[in-house]
Specification:
With 551 residues, this protein is of the alpha/beta class. The chain is built from twelve helices and 25 strands. The longest helix has 18 residues.
Amino acid sequence: MKNFDYIVIGSGSSGSALAHRLLEDGKYTVLVLEGGGSDISPLIRMPAALSYPMNMSKYDWSYYSEPEQFLNGRKLKCPRGKVLGGSSSINGMVYVRGNPCDYEYWEDSGAKDWGYSNVLPYFKRMETSHGGEDQWRGLNGPLHITRGKGKNPLNQALLNSASEAGYDVTVDYNGKKQEGFAVGEMTVWKGNRWSSYRAYLEPNLKNKNLTIFKRVLVDHIIFSNNIAIGVAYYLNGKKHEIFANKEIVCSAGSIGSPQILQRSGIGKAEHLKKLGIDIIANRPGVGQNLQDHLEVYFQLKCKKKITLYSHLNLISKASIGLQWLLFRNGLGSTNHFETVGFIRSRAGVKYPDIQYHLLPLAMNYDGTSPFKGHGFQFHVGPMRSNSRGHIKIKSKDPNEHPEIVFNYMSKDQDWIDFRNCIRLSREILNQPSFSDYIEEEIQPGININSDSDIDEFIRNNAESAYHPCGTLKMGDSSDPSAVVNSDCEVIGVKNLRVADSSIFPRITNGNLNGPCIMVGEKAADHILGKPLLPKSNQIPYYSKDWENSQR
């Protein structure tokens, strides 16, 4: 078996974009190793079917957290894509770049040249934005981004009610001004899920320089004198080795990448020695700094029969599926998260720290719901918790799931922020524009008002928004908690880089698919030694009175 110039572990949001850019000049051969198989199923490609693949072991690694101490000992589901396209093939397709201040924090914390002026050109390079704000959006990139049509009247009711409550309606939350409520954007094109695989790798399938191995389980990186030279992996139960002429890039995600590094001898020496793993580099930050977005479903009973509940019967589902299969339109062609909001929780917060998604149906991500009838819900939660968790392998066995502890709600401020989410949500829902639609509050329930009652509701009902990140933090090489430097190189070894959500120093505002793709785009230029794209001089919006006013 021949060697390849570059080996990319993972075909997900970052890996697909990265591999495409490495192939672009036609100079290098690239091998992509993917743990899953084909993404061809309608359950993946139909946007409205999003709840299916993330709950199928065929497409999902099926991770769960350990019992979470501050959530009444509940184990929370943590889906990660095991399929071409990775998590971009099983996610909710909501497209959010993050807030400009997120990237200013990255740079201030040691990620040199990852400030907003540095990353904005990469967001623009990757996008073809259909309906975004002029000058702020890309028009010729591989990733098609479309806007929700908002045909359900609940979408306009939310925009109107938010305005009545004193919040802005922004033209483009991915443009100059994130703060406010806006039409949602999604990675959907011509009625199909537009995963990173479809955007970046599928067009390269006839490229002789690209090879993709599917259904492989990566065991570890092979080193020679601290130089990464190859990858050991399993295929059909047999162990194989493959070698790289130049570099290996780990893009296995925030759960997968730290496991691979730990099995390869990169991590906290004390932990690895106990497992009988030879130490290649003592980096105690490997698997630390785990972050996520936690949210609750704020559910309302609807007075009018306008929600998606009418379409949950088998006949309607079959009709929607047939229309999508034949014409790629109708209710199957959207993720139904067509209105999104970003607000600040209190005065003194510079930029939004609460996110809203509206869904015109009262239902959980797994397709279940305790409520049978016409209802709708907000997905709402804080964006920047200071709680931190970890990922630790339990053995050398790549088949054994790691210890995943998020430490959700472990900081006092988390409770204050979440109570604000509940109370600010009620204020929006009590505006005149919602009066024709809301019959009653399903959950939390009108009797859940005190701090203690709200806290207990959160302990029992908060769910992950499925945005884990941060477990291989990017920072200055002198920072003992950093794992990769600003060029995405793993500190302490050579020819090994990481490019995925694990390198985020801190979680970004909103859904993570967009920032992950940006990381893959930008990391490719670092790897190839190309000059970085020229910095942007565009200045984003922030509230002038943020120190004194919540809105």
